[in-house]
Write a structure and sequence with these properties.
heterodimer, B: eleven-stranded mixed β-sheet
Amino acid sequence: MTKLVPLRRVAGSLPEMSDEALLAACATGDTAALGALFDRFNLAVYRFLTRLPTTDDAARDDLVQATFLEVRRCAANFRGASSVKTWILGVAANISRRQLRGERRRRVHQAMFVVGQDDRDVVRPDAAVEQRRLIAKIADALAQLPHDQQVAFAMCDLEQLPGVDVARALRIPEGTLWRRLHQARRAVREIVGGQR
Amino acid sequence: MKDADFEAALAAMRDAPVDVPCAAHREEVRTALLARAMPPVHARSRRWLAVPLAAAAAVVAIVAWPAPALHEVALPLLPPLPARGHVHPLPGAVFAAASHVPDEVVTLHDGTIHLDVDPLHANERFRVIVGASEIEVRGTAFEVTADHDRLVDVHVLHGRVEVRPVGREMIVLGAGGDWKFESAAAPASVAPVVVAVPLAPRPPVHTATLPPRVVIATADQVAYNDGWSALRGSQFELAAANFAKALAAAPDGSLADDARFWHAVALARGHATGPALAAFHDLVDQHPNSIHAGEASAMLGWMLVDAKRLDEARQRFAAAINDPSAKVRASAQAGIDALDSPKP
């Protein structure tokens, strides 16, 4: 008695719908709209979750699924205070924090960026290599921050989303966001500086 | 470190390729997502199929198996396993998993099943439906027996279970509690905890022999139920207020530890961290024997980790390490491991 899952893309209208309209359709339980939202934003969610050092590869697929299930559940609550993309990333941030609370592990996600361990150990007088080592150090430093600061750093400094949008999506005051971002930047600088 | 170096590294980080899965893998995730997102299939809507299917299965079993022993004529219904619990059917039990998390429903048609349900999150439900009767659990182990879609017996091993027999008032059974159909007219439960009134109207069955009793819900029961409704609707402030009201109405009542636990959960889910910490402390300190004590200790441990109160966190994890629930034990162990592991 298993129901068939619509795997095919719905042609025509869905790709032309705005993000907000898709979300509204999703709020009515439209599974095709959820699929379309996934098509539109799954890369952004994967990218964002990959940037969070507390997210590991094994959990990432589950987190992406959980994010979109939560998006469907909470779609009716979307008030347009931020862009749909920022809102979905905010949902992903909350989901990942829940997961972190559940497992509570600050695992360093060494493969966060395409920087191999060998690259970091080999010292060459090459500016590009030096910059890649610096990136790896920042990634490592990010892994040592509290989850809230990681999210602020990833959304504002890496994804470059507007701070006002991010604060609304995370449902925190702008001042709180800026404080977290400031603390994250300062801590990353200190950690990276201390390693040099 | 120079600002320019830092900014340049950040810019490079933004542009660096991020290791996302390939398109084929993401398509698999998409498929799984949509499968999970499908609306639950309710047993009631396909109950008409159960009888012919069961009859056909029985015919097949009788024809195909020569002279089977009676207990071997188990109906070959193989439902998907519930996510939040384990079903251990006794021989001959006919049951099906009708919907999935967050509102899991197991329909029992005949026989006895033993269920071991993990602690549920606030927005999750786990119910067993027998005919028009319903049993709702919140993390527990219990047995249900049915006879031709009629609820016959509920026995609670540990935890707490709400029994809603058709046409009758809800009864909450505690550990060791027992509800039996034939003795339902009299309050024969070993440890019934609460009798509450607010029930959706259901078609009365057996009303000639089992007239419903008139029961007046007390203030704490009403507030507690309101709290649960709000919690299920993700209205955390309202939920916390109602659970607090339930506590204030009967600080030593039979619902006190439940109300304290869900009060703390509602506060935590509403991001009221300080009050949530205090509420969890109240629960584990005032109700050390509560069925929620282990789970609350583990949750408190993680909140204390967040608050950098690591010594206290370790104590709370240690208090939960022998909890009956495997998930709670695993959480507590993970907490201790986390505290023991060197910081990256």
